[in-house]
Write a structure and sequence with these properties.
It catalyses: ATP + protein L-histidine = ADP + protein N-phospho-L-histidine. This protein has 12 helices and 12 strands. It has 465 residues and is an alpha+beta fold. A hairpin with a 3-residue loop joins strand 1 and strand 2. It is elongated.
């Protein structure tokens, strides 16, 4: 298992906290802009109230002490009111600063203007003098103007930011904990259980007790558990089948060796029977010799298949046209003139391959086609990038659906009576050893077509990998 800090649970927790904090940052910007606007609006409302107190005094005059107290309550150097009926009037002022640094008209500021002004206040020096204009929230008609120092506003905004940060951290940690627990229960623990099961199954894949137990969930985790168990059951069955086949193979190898010797002796005796002058004996001898040859060939192919290991290639430049001509001249039916072997591969086409092994591939394909009943076999080739595609097409009766299902499996896929199914299995194994492949392109009543793909050179094969 990975260390706690590098585990999936820890990563989910950190990501959740980070994402929630990012969301809080996006919320913080408009929140602090709104706080600044509210602060200034409250100052305008306080200014309006101060002016109303002044207007209630006799002759609208107050003493210097009361005027200073009203301005202190507002937090401004100057308060002015513009009444739509009588025009602009300067009402309260004390100790005016020498200059105004910025004029803020709340009525004309858009959303992004408010965002920018808020960050200027937060990040600026904080000692600017602001002239604030806006409509009084008390009556919604009067225009109020105040002049104030930005420092108290900045302090309040910083305090507000700290409160938002603390709240964001609390929300992030609480949300992250809930999400972490949910993901841990719904995802991390099932994944950990599947990982432990795979590790245990890897140590003993033939033990059926180590199959993945199903939780009964109907979501993606339940589907993954079911697929894993299905894969384990298939692998377990395959291993048991291969173990049985290995035991059978050892026995078949011993039997085939002894049986081939016995059949060779019987074949010699059948040759003597063929020399008999008795017509009935001569007729029976031909059938007997054919049967014995087929049995001997079966034993020979079985022994060769069980003894051979992975193909060891002796690479050289092979003239494909010449090789196919050689194969066609040595096929039994072709030699006897019973079938046509037509080589349409262009002269000079070559590949880097093991000539002897490539000969076996074409010989097996041709022999299979002839033994299946084909009377014409056509071979042609085409270059595709750094690969060569060779197609072998015959006019035989085609393969049965049952033969096509397990076409390249040894001992199971022969399309004719008495066949071993080894020819195509060996041909594909040799093709893949060269970095290519052998596949069935089509098989119907008009005939069968196999496609052999080979790299032009082993260097291009390695570059592609």
């Amino acid at each position: 298992m990975p260390p706690p800090l590098r585990s999936l649970s820890a990563k989910l927790l950190l990501l959740t906290v980070a994402f929630v904090m990012m969301a809080e940052v996006l919320i913080f910007a408009p929140s602090v802009a709104r706080f600044r606007e509210t602060y200034l609006t409250q100052r305008l409302a306080s200014a309006h109230l101060a002016i109303l107190a002044l207007e209630g005094a006799p002759d609208q005059m107050v003493g210097a002490d009361l005027e200073a107290e009203l301005l202190k309550h507002v937090g401004a150097y100057l308060v002015a009111l513009e009444d739509p009926k009588v025009g602009r009037r300067l009402l309260l002022s004390i100790d005016m600063p020498p200059a105004i640094d910025e004029v803020v008209d709340l009525g004309r500021m858009g959303f992004f203007d408010k965002l920018g002004a808020a960050f200027v206040t937060l990040l600026g020096p904080g000692d600017r003098i602001l002239r604030v204009l806006g409509t009084s929230p008390e009556d919604g008609v009067s225009k109020v103007e105040i002049v104030l120092n930005e420092a108290p506003l900045r302090r309040e905004m910083i305090n507000f930011g700290y409160r938002v940060l603390a709240l964001s951290l609390a929300i992030s940690l609480f949300t992250a904990a809930l999400i972490y627990l949910s993901l841990h229960l719904l995802l991390v623990r099932p994944l950990r259980r599947m990982t432990e099961n795979m590790m245990a199954f890897r140590e003993d894949p033939e033990n059926a007790e180590r199959f993945m137990p199903l939780s009964g969930r109907s979501d993606e985790v339940g589907l993954a558990e079911a697929q894993l168990r299905e894969m384990q059951e298939a692998l377990w069955a395959s291993l048991h089948q291969k173990a049985r086949l290995a035991a059978v193979g050892v026995a078949v190898t011993k039997i085939s060796h002894d049986l081939r010797n016995i059949l060779s002796t019987a074949s010699l005796m059948s040759d003597r029977l063929a020399a008999s002058q008795d017509p009935d004996v001569k007729r029976s001898a031909g059938t007997l010799m054919t049967t014995l040859d087929r049995a001997i060939n079966l034993c020979r192919q079985t022994l060769n298949f069980t003894r051979e290991g992975p193909a060891v290639l002796e690479l050289s430049r092979v003239d494909l046209h010449a090789l196919i001509d050689e194969v066609g001249s040595e096929l039994p039916a072709s030699l006897a003139g019973e079938a046509e072997w037509r080589n349409e591969v262009p002269a000079g086409v070559g590949v880097e391959a093991d000539r002897a092994q490539l000969y076996r591939v074409f010989h097996n394909l041709g022999l299979n086609a002839l033994q299946a009943g084909a009377t014409a076999i056509v071979l042609d080739a085409a270059r595709l990038d750094e690969r060569l595609e060779i197609e072998l097409t015959d006019n035989g009766p085609g393969l049965s659906p049952r033969a096509r299902e397990r076409l390249f499996q040894p001992f199971t896929a022969s399309g004719r009576s008495g066949g071993t199914g080894l020819g195509l299995a060996i041909a594909r194994e040799l093709a893949r050893a060269h970095g290519g492949d052998l596949e069935l392109r089509r098989s119907d009543a008009a005939g069968t077509c196999f496609r052999l793909t080979l790299p032009l050179s082993q260097a291009s094969r390695q570059a592609a990998q």
